[in-house]
């Protein structure tokens, strides 16, 4: 299953702890920035059975992890290359055009926020 809206600081261990309550996890694939190889706010969680996945959708979807409401979605299956972010630079598309900075996410919004601050009179 696809898990989105993760903090850039959420670890694989935190995901394993939360999703492991719903069943035995086969593997977790963290979403990575293509260039920097840093987390970019999503992951894939694979269970051994459909029932375990359904439990995760039922009980974990919409819960809070690292002060963010996470979103779970069905996924057709992981293929190599899908762990990298979208967009021209390998980050999430929305982060490239974001004007605010969310401390829980980091990303391109921080660059924009710094640019805005540098223009403000002291």
From TrEMBL:
Give the subcellular location.
Nucleus
At the top level, the lineage of the source is Eukaryota
Pfam families per UniProt: RRM_1
Q: Which CDD domains match?
A: RRM_NCBP2
What SUPFAM superfamilies does its record include? RNA-binding domain, RBD
Q: Which residues cross the membrane?
A: none
- Entry's InterPro entries? NCBP2 (IPR027157), NCBP2_RRM (IPR034148), Nucleotide-bd_a/b_plait_sf (IPR012677), RBD_domain_sf (IPR035979), RRM_dom (IPR000504)
Tell me which UniProt keywords the record has, alphabetically: mRNA processing, mRNA splicing, Nucleus, RNA-binding, RNA-mediated gene silencing
Give the signal peptide as a residue range, or say none if absent.
Answer: none
- Ranges for domain RRM come to 1-77
Q: Does the keyword field hold Oxidoreductase?
A: no
Q: Fetch the SMART domains from UniProt.
A: RRM
What family name appears in the similarity comment? Belongs to the RRM NCBP2 family.
Protein name as it appears in the record:
Nuclear cap-binding protein subunit 2
State the organism named in the record.
Tegillarca granosa (Malaysian cockle)
């Amino acid at each position: 299953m696809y898990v989105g809206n993760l903090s850039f600081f959420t670890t694989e261990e935190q995901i394993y702890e939360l999703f492991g309550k719903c069943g035995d996890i086969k593997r977790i694939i963290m979403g990575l920035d293509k260039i920097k190889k840093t987390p970019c706010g999503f992951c894939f969680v694979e269970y051994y059975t459909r029932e375990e996945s359904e439990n995760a959708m039922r009980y974990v979807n919409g819960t809070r992890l690292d002060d963010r409401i996470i979103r779970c979605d069905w996924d057709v299956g992981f293929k190599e290359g899908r762990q990298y972010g979208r967009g021209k630079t390998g980050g999430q598309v929305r982060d490239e055009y974001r004007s605010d900075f969310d401390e829980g996410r980091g990303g391109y919004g921080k660059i924009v926020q710094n640019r805005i601050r540098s223009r403000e009179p002291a």
